[in-house]
Amino acid sequence: MKSVKIVESIADTPYGGLYIKEWLPNDLISEIPIIMLHDSLGCVSLWKDFPKMLAITLSRRIIAYDRLGFGQSGVRVEPPTIDFIKEEASMFFPKIKKHLSIDKYILLGHSVGGGMSLNIAANDKGCTAVISISAQAFVEDITLQGIKTARKMFEKPGQIERLEKWHGNKATWVLKAWIDTWLSPDFSRWNLNYCLYNITCPVLVIHGDNDEYGSNAFPEHIVANVLGESTKLIIHKCGHFPHKEKTTEVSEAIVSFMS
Question: Are 96 and 65 in contact (CB under 8 A)?
Fold first, then answer.
């Protein structure tokens, strides 16, 4: 019977500690782990049972961490810069690799975590593959409208408490970091073109056809511009969280991609 061991640790950085959680199956088939990067309001805990399921299904070590300012990682006071996606790849992810003594790895990122994964893969040949779920490739009108709709929802009584459950007293910072950055005029021209052309590892791009934060133009743009072998999966009747809404379909796609 398969079992999974849980290991938790903190990676020290000059800016604050980064919380890390690992799922270690007893039938490990590869030393190359999968490292997961969460979305703009996410954290390790919000992956729920998905990492454990992947560890059991793939017989691989699964690692997830809270970005600085999120979940159980250290507090972040200053707002993110418009280069925060690049900065995660250059400033923080190397600290995770060093702490865990990892050279080669696979990345799995959701939403902005997908963009961060692609940034990392473009600059670190230790990344052997990328699984991108609901990643934005540029800023669309639907992206901005989705964020504005979410902003109105979080203005309602009791809604910020939903974030506090996962982020504690960092919840307001988490929400403002997402909304203020993406709605900033300075961020309106952001795109992933600067890194896509440098990605040579295999890439699996998963996207829901009803994603409220981006159209199918996002996955199409990514697969058309990476240099490595790329696979696109558009999941029908699915929104921004395919790994929660269509878990079986996503799991099967990942198994097929990994094999």
Answer: yes
How would you classify residue 52: left for phi > 0, otherwise alpha for psi between -120 and 50, otherwise beta? alpha
Angle between the N-to-C axes of helices 171-182 and 141-154, in degrees from 0 to 180, rounded to the nearest 10: 150
Amino acid at 32: I
> Residue 228 in contact with residue 200, Cβ under 8 Å?
yes
Exposed / middle / buried, residue 85 (Cβ in 10 Å: 0-12, 13-18, 19+): buried
Local structure of 203: helix, strand or coil: strand
DSSP 70-112: STTS----SPPPTTHHHHIIIIIHHHHHHHHT-SSEEEEEETH
Q: What is the pLDDT of residues 211-257, one digit of tens each?
A: 999 999 999 999 999 999 999 999 999 999 999 999 999 999 999 99
Domain spanning 4-258 has what CATH number? Answer: 3.40.50.1820
Domain boundaries along the sequence of the chain: 4-258
Expressed in angstroms, the distance from the first to the final Cα of the chain is 22
CA distance 85 to 30: 29
**3-class SS shares of the chain: helix, strand, coil, % to 5:** 45, 20, 35
Q: Starting at the edge strand that comes first in sequence, how are the strands of the sheet with 203-208 ordered?
A: 4-11, 18-25, 62-65, 34-37, 105-110, 127-133, 203-208, 230-235
For 122-160, the pLDDT digits (tens) are: 999 999 999 999 999 999 999 999 999 999 999 999 999
Does the pLDDT of residue 54 top 80, yes or no? yes
